[in-house]
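Deliverable D2.4 — example input (C-alpha cells):
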C-alpha cells in the first residue's frame, strides 16, 4: 500500500486504502463529478506514524471503557501524548512532494477518513476532526497528525464501540483537499428526510462555508424540491445572522449584512442545478445520498456524498397486498418477520446496497403493510437507475453492468446448492417424533423450524428484486431498440413463457383431469357432489390408477398453501380443494398446456430473433444473456416460493403438538388457538412457567383471536392515515396492465378458497390477489382483476400464459363491484369499464 494517493489513482477507490470518505471522493472524481482535487494519506502513513511508540497496545488495553468519566480523562492524556510525536521524515517528504503539484499558498481542508466511516451502516459524522483553510506544509502536517490523534478521543472510541466496531478495527486515512471558498454552501438529501418521500429532495443552505449548515447551530434556508423537475415545492427562508468564512486561523464567524439576512441564499437557477446534481449522484450510486455541496463563484462543487441511513416509513398495501392478502395470526407473523428482515440485510449486502434500518413490513390490525418509501428507494430506485434510453447508452453501460452485477450469474447456482441442505433439514424435522415432548421441547422444535426457514430464505429477497430489476432493464432495452409504441407487445412476447414449478404442477393437474374426463361415470360422480363429500364417500377408490395418481400428486405437491399463514391447512390436509380444482378443469374447454407452451415458445423465440437482428453485433450476446437471466429469475422466483411453502408442514406439525399441550393445560380452548399467541409472550411464559404467566397468556390469546376475527371481516385501508382512494378516469377504474386483451363478463368476487366451487364459467375473477393454488380458476374465467400486484405477479403471469386479459392493482375494486355486474376488462390499457347493469 502506498503512503499517499491522489483522487485519480486507482488505489484510492479501495476504502481499506482511503477510508470511506477518501474512497468516495476518488470515486466521484473518477466518475466525472465536480470535486475539488486532493490527496489521501493511507493507513500505511498512519501506521508509520503510530509505530514510533511501542507501548500503544498496552495503553489501549488499560482504557477504562466502562467508566465514561475515567475514559474521558484517559483518552485526553493519550491524545496529548500522541500530539507530541513528530512526523516521520520520509512521510513528511512524500506529503511535501504531493502538495508541490498545487499552486503556492493553496489552502486545503484536512479531514479524517476512518476505514469504517461513511459505509452505510454507521454514520461517523462529527466523530473525528476536520480542519479548514490550512496553508503551508507545517500547518498541514500538524493537522494531519491531529486527525490521527482524534481517532482516540473518548467521543470517537465510544461511538465506534456503540456501532459494534472493535477498538482497534479502525485505522485512519486522511483527506487533504483543495479548499473551496464557497459563497453559499449546504447539504442536500435525495429524499424528503421527514416524510421519506422518494420523489422529493431537501436542501438546507447558508452563505459562506457549509459548516454553519452541517453543525446545525445557525438559522438556514430550507427548500423541498420536486425530484423529477427540480421545481420548488416548499421554501422556508430564514432570518440568517451568521456565515462562516475562511481566515488565517482556519475559519471565523462573520455577521451577515441586512440585505442578505432575509433574502434566499440560492436562486431558482442554482436550485435547479443542485437538483440535477443530486439526481446524477443518486443514479450513480443507485441509492439516495446525503450530500454536501458549495457554490464557489458560479462553480458548483460536490464535496461529499454518503448513503442515507434512515428512511421514514409510509405504510401502504402496495408491496404487501399480493404476498399477504388476508389477515395474519400474530404468532405466524412473529415466526417469519425476523427471518424476512435478515434476508433483507443479506440481500442488500449481496447487491451492494446500504443496510436497511427499521421495518420493511409490519402488522397493523392483522394485515401486513409495507414501508413504501423504503420499497421505492431500494427496489424501484435500483431498477430505475439501470434504465437505458438508447442503444449507444447500453453499449456505454455494459462494463459497469458486468462489474456491478456479476453476482447475478452465480446466485441461481448457489441457491440450488443450498436448497439441498434446506430440504434435508425439512426431512429431519418431519421425521422427528413429538409425542410425549414437554412444552419447552415443543417450542424448541418450532424455533428450529423457524431458524431453518430463516437460513434458507436469506437470498430470496435478492431473487425477487433482481427479477424486477432485470425486467425493467430488458424493457428499457426493448424500448430503445424498437420504440416505445411497440415496446410493451415486444416485451410481453420475449417473456411470454418461462419454465416454472407452478406451470409444471398445473400440467400434472391437467393430465389428471383429462384422464378423469375419459370416464363419464366418474365425471358424473364428481359433478354431483362437493369435493369433501366425494372424498368422504370413498373418492377414487373404485379407480385404482386415478387414486394412485391423486395420492402421488398430494405427496409431491400437498405442501402448497392456500394462504401465507400456516394457521390455514395445505392441500395435504384439505385434499377436497384439489378435487374442486379438478372439477373446474373438467368444466372448462381447457387447451392442452403443452400445445399452449409450444405456441408461446415459437412466438418468443421469433421475437427474440427479430430483436437481436436489429442490434449491433457487440450487443447481441449481452442482450441475449439478459433475456436468459430474466427468464431464469422468473422461474427461480417461482420455485423459491414453492420450496418456501414446505415450511408450512413442520410449522403446523410443531404448533399443533404445542397447541394440544396448551389445550390440555387449559390455556387455550382449541388446538390451533396457539397461533393467536405472541412469540415473545409465549416464550417468556414457557420460561417462567408460573400460574399467573399462563393465565396472562390465555387472556392475550383470547383477545388476539377476537381482534383477528373482527379484522378479518374488514377490508384494510390502502395507506395508513389516509382515506381510501379509487383511481378512475372517465368512469373507469384504472390499474396496471397485467395481460393484454379485452373481455366482457359478470363480476365474481373470490375472497378465499371457499368461493372456488361456486365460481361460474365465463365470469370475471375479482380478488385481492391470487396465488398458484388459484390457477385452475383462470381456466374458467373470462378475465382477471386484482387489488394488488403488477405485471410480475402470479395473476399477471398466469393470465398471460392462459391468454386472459388482466388488470392488476385496482385499488378498492372489491368494495365497489358487486357479484353479477357486467364489466369490460381492458388488460392492454389497464382499465375496467363499469356498465352498472346486471345480466
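Example output (designed residues):
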Amino acid at each position: 500500500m502506498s503512503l499517499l494517493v491522489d483522487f485519480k489513482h486507482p488505489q484510492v477507490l479501495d476504502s481499506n486504502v482511503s477510508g470511506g470518505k477518501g474512497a468516495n471522493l476518488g470515486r466521484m472524481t473518477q466518475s466525472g463529478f465536480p470535486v475539488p482535487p486532493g490527496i489521501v494519506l493511507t493507513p500505511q502513513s498512519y501506521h508509520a506514524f503510530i509505530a514510533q511508540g511501542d507501548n500503544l497496545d498496552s495503553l489501549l488495553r488499560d482504557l477504562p471503557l466502562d467508566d465514561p468519566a475515567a475514559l474521558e480523562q484517559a483518552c485526553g492524556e493519550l491524545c496529548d501524548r500522541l500530539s507530541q510525536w513528530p512526523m516521520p521524515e520520509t512521510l513528511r517528504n512524500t506529503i511535501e512532494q504531493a502538495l508541490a503539484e498545487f499552486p503556492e499558498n493553496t489552502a486545503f481542508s484536512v479531514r479524517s477518513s476512518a476505514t469504517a466511516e461513511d459505509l452505510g451502516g454507521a454514520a461517523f459524522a462529527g466523530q473525528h476532526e476536520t480542519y479548514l483553510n490550512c496553508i503551508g506544509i507545517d500547518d498541514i502536517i500538524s493537522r494531519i497528525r491531529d486527525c490521527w490523534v482524534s481517532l482516540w478521543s473518548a467521543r470517537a472510541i465510544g461511538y465506534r464501540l456503540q456501532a459494534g466496531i472493535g477498538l482497534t478495527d479502525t485505522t485512519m486515512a486522511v483527506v487533504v483537499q483543495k479548499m473551496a471558498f464557497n459563497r453559499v454552501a449546504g447539504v442536500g438529501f435525495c429524499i424528503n428526510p421527514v416524510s421519506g418521500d422518494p420523489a422529493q429532495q431537501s436542501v438546507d443552505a447558508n452563505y459562506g462555508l457549509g459548516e454553519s449548515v452541517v453543525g446545525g447551530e445557525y438559522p438556514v434556508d430550507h427548500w423541498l424540491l420536486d425530484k423529477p423537475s427540480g421545481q420548488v415545492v416548499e421554501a422556508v427562508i430564514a432570518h440568517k445572522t451568521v456565515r462562516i468564512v475562511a481566515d488565517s486561523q482556519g475559519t471565523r464567524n462573520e455577521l451577515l449584512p441586512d440585505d442578505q439576512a432575509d433574502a434566499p441564499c440560492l436562486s431558482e437557477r442554482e436550485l435547479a442545478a443542485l437538483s440535477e446534481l443530486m439526481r446524477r449522484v443518486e443514479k450513480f450510486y443507485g441509492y439516495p445520498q446525503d450530500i454536501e455541496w458549495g457554490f464557489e463563484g458560479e462553480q458548483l462543487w460536490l464535496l461529499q456524498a454518503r448513503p442515507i441511513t434512515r428512511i421514514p416509513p409510509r405504510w401502504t398495501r402496495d408491496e404487501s397486498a399480493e404476498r399477504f392478502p388476508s389477515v395474519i395470526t400474530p404468532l405466524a407473523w412473529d415466526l417469519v418477520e425476523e427471518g424476512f428482515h435478515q434476508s433483507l440485510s443479506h440481500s442488500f449486502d449481496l447487491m451492494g446496497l446500504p443496510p436497511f434500518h427499521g421495518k420493511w413490513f409490519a402488522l397493523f390490525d392483522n394485515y401486513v403493510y409495507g414501508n413504501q418509501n423504503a420499497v421505492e428507494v431500494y427496489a424501484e430506485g435500483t431498477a430505475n437507475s439501470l434504465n437505458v434510453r438508447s442503444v449507444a447508452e447500453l453499449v456505454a453501460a455494459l462494463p459497469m453492468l458486468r462489474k456491478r452485477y456479476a453476482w447475478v450469474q452465480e446466485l441461481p447456482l448457489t441457491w440450488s446448492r443450498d436448497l439441498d441442505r434446506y430440504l434435508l433439514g425439512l426431512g429431519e424435522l418431519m421425521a422427528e417424533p413429538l409425542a410425549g415432548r414437554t412444552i419447552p421441547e415443543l417450542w424448541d422444535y418450532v424455533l428450529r423450524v423457524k431458524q431453518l426457514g430463516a437460513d434458507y430464505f436469506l437470498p430470496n429477497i435478492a431473487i425477487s428484486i433482481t427479477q424486477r430489476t432485470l425486467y425493467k432493464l430488458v424493457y428499457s432495452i426493448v424500448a430503445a431498440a424498437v420504440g416505445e409504441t411497440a415496446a410493451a407487445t415486444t416485451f410481453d412476447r420475449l417473456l411470454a413463457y418461462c419454465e416454472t414449478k407452478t406451470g409444471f404442477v398445473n400440467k400434472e393437474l391437467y393430465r389428471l383431469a383429462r384422464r378423469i374426463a375419459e370416464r363419464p361415470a366418474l365425471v358424473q360422480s364428481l359433478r354431483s357432489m362437493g369435493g369433501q363429500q366425494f372424498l368422504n364417500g370413498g373418492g377414487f377408490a373404485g379407480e385404482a390408477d386415478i387414486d394412485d395418481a391423486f395420492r402421488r400428486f398430494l405427496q409431491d405437491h400437498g405442501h402448497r398453501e392456500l394462504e401465507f399463514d400456516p394457521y390455514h391447512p395445505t392441500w395435504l390436509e384439505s385434499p377436497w380443494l384439489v378435487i374442486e380444482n379438478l372439477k373446474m378443469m373438467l368444466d372448462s374447454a381447457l387447451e392442452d398446456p403443452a400445445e399452449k407452451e409450444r405456441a408461446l415458445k415459437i412466438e418468443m423465440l421469433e421475437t427474440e430473433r427479430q430483436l437481436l437482428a436489429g442490434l449491433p453485433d457487440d450487443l447481441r450476446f449481452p442482450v441475449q444473456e439478459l433475456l436468459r437471466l430474466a427468464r431464469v429469475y422468473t422461474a427461480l422466483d417461482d420455485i423459491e416460493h414453492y420450496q418456501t411453502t414446505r415450511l408450512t408442514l413442520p410449522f403446523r406439525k410443531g404448533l399443533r403438538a404445542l397447541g394440544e399441550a396448551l389445550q390440555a393445560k387449559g390455556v387455550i380452548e382449541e388446538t390451533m388457538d396457539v397461533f393467536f399467541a405472541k412469540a415473545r409472550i409465549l416464550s417468556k411464559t414457557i420460561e417462567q412457567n408460573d400460574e399467573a404467566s399462563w393465565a396472562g397468556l390465555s387472556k392475550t390469546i383470547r383477545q388476539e383471536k377476537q381482534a383477528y376475527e373482527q379484522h378479518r371481516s374488514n377490508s384494510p385501508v390502502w395507506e395508513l392515515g389516509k382515506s381510501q382512494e379509487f383511481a378512475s378516469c372517465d368512469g373507469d377504474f384504472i390499474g396496471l396492465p397485467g395481460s393484454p386483451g379485452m373481455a366482457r363478463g359478470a363480476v365474481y368476487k373470490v375472497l378465499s378458497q371457499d368461493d372456488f366451487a361456486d365460481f361460474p364459467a365465463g365470469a370475471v375473477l375479482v380478488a385481492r390477489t391470487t396465488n398458484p393454488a388459484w390457477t385452475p380458476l383462470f381456466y374458467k374465467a373470462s378475465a382477471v382483476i386484482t387489488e394488488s400486484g403488477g405485471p410480475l405477479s402470479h395473476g399477471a403471469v398466469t393470465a398471460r400464459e392462459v391468454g386472459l386479459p388482466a388488470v392488476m392493482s385496482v385499488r378498492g375494486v372489491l368494495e365497489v363491484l358487486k357479484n353479477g355486474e357486467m364489466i369490460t376488462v381492458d388488460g392492454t390499457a389497464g382499465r375496467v369499464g363499469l356498465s352498472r347493469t346486471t345480466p
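The CA atoms of residues 416 and 636 lie 9 Å apart.
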